[in-house]
Amino acid sequence: MTTWSGVAEAYRVSFATLCAGTIDRLLDDTAGPRHLDVGSGTGELARRAQARGRTVVAVDADPEMVALSSQQHAGTTVQAALPHLPLHCRFDAVTANFVINHTPDPRAAVRELARLVRPGGRVAITIWPSDPPAWASLVQEAFEAAGVVSPPSRRLEPGLDFERSVAGLTSLATSARLAPLGARELRWEWRTTVDDFWSGLAGGVATAGQVLAAQTADVRRAAERAFRDLTSALVGPDQVLALPSRAAYLLATPAPNSLTGPTRPTAGDRTGGGRRARRSPRR
Ligand SMILES: C[S@@+](CC[C@H](N)C(=O)[O-])C[C@H]1O[C@@H](n2cnc3c(N)ncnc32)[C@H](O)[C@@H]1O
User: Fold this and answer.
1) Is residue 203 part of a domain?
2) Tally of domains in the chain
3) 67 lines ligand 1 (CB under 6 A)
4) Residue 29 counted as domain residue
5) What is the domain extent for residue 223?
6) CA 61 – ligand 1 centroid, Å
7) Cα–Cα distance for residue pair 242/186, rounded to 1 Å
8) How far is CA 248 from CA 20, 98, 136, 164, 183, in A?
9) Residue % of the chain over a pLDDT of 90
10) What is the reported pTM?
11) Is 39 touching ligand 1 by the criterion CB < 6 Å?
12) Could you tell me the sign of the dihedral formed by the alpha carbons of 130, 199, 186, 70, in that order?
């Protein structure tokens, strides 16, 4: 599993702009007024949800991400980790953009999202598919050229893992008693620069960044040279690197008669437990 400790700023300038490519889809497919965003990262989804008039509760496991998120929107940001969130109310919309795949128990994590959506509300989830998108293949190629050696796999045990695909995500949702409303692949173009992309990897973001961090200094330098060689042919005159990207996407609603557990279907956005970040001025 990937650790998110100490990478928030490197994430903000690099992969956050990649993950932002699906945000408008998730917001278009859900409705407020009460919106829960889990694994909120920099808070960009929460910011855009608020711009649509929603009252947002954001949750992230990492304290630096919580600090970034709380600067982006006027809602509450709670530090807590799936699969157990200290929330005791239900929301009209629950989003988890590229988060479920980072949790220690993805099945239980989706059950927790299902617990927190009101009857008739919507849950929208994205994950990276196992079949790598173009940007991930570029990293793979650069790493291979530099002789990067992968540390032992930190994948989940087979009993906890799931198929990283639209079908795999759908199966998690149905086992959490969510009824799929739409399940498909999303495609978009990630517009970044070579420097921003590399700064995410060099900053230890995500699995690739952590694999790179585990290499010797010589191998890291060779990986950067290979990455810059490969990408130099792809940048446009404006220095923009435009890379096709794909995600597995699921939109779902609670299945009839699926309401279980201690959560009360209340109208407020009461949160309990967890560490709450200071509210920041509305921007
Ligand atoms: C790939 S980032 C996605 C962030 C954000 N959703 C976005 O679209 O930019 C994954 C985020 O999930 C958070 N995270 C990882 N494990 C988590 C967990 N078990 N519960 C809640 N958040 C978690 C990380 O701290 C990080 O902010």
Assistant:
1) yes
2) 1
3) no
4) yes
5) 8-257
6) 7
7) 16
8) 14, 9, 15, 8, 8
9) 78
10) 0.90
11) yes
12) positive
For the beta carbon of residue 238, count every other beta carbon within 10 angstroms.
Answer: 8
What pLDDT sits at residue 265? Answer: 41
Looking from the CA of residue 81, the nearest atom of ligand 1 is: 20
Distance 5 CA to ligand 1 centre (A): 11
Residue labelled with tokens 């590399």: 198
Tokens of 181: 């409303």
Closest residue (by CA) to atom 13 of ligand 1?
A: 39
Q: Whose CA is nearest to atom 22 of ligand 1?
A: 39
The pLDDT, as a whole number, for residue 159 is 84
3-state secondary structure of 54: coil
Distance 143 CA to ligand 1 centre (A): 25
User: Residues in the chain with pLDDT < 50?
Assistant: 262, 264-273, 278-283
Q: What is the pLDDT of residues 5-23, one digit of tens each?
A: 889 999 999 999 999 999 9
Task: Assess if residue 265 is contained within a domain.
Answer: no
Q: Which pLDDT does position 2 carry in this prediction? A: 75
Contact 139 CB / ligand 1 (< 6 Å): no
Q: What is the pLDDT of residue 276?
A: 56
Residue 64: phi, psi to the nearest 5? Answer: -70, -35
For residue 275, the model assigns a pLDDT of 57
Bond before 83 cis per omega within 30 degrees: yes
**Pocket of ligand 1, candidates 82, 99, 154: which has the most ligand atoms within 8 Å of its Cβ, to mutate?**
99
Tell me how far the alpha carbon of residue 79 lies from the centroid of ligand 1, in angstroms. 11
What is the structure's pLDDT at 152? 73
pLDDT of residue 200: 96
Give the model's pLDDT for residue 231.
Answer: 94
The CATH number of whichever domain residue 25 belongs to comes to 3.40.50.150
Q: What is the pLDDT of residue 205?
A: 93
Cβ–ligand 1 distance for 65 under 6 Å, the answer yes
Spacing, Cα 96 to ligand 1 middle (Å): 8
Domain for residue 110, yes or no?
Answer: yes
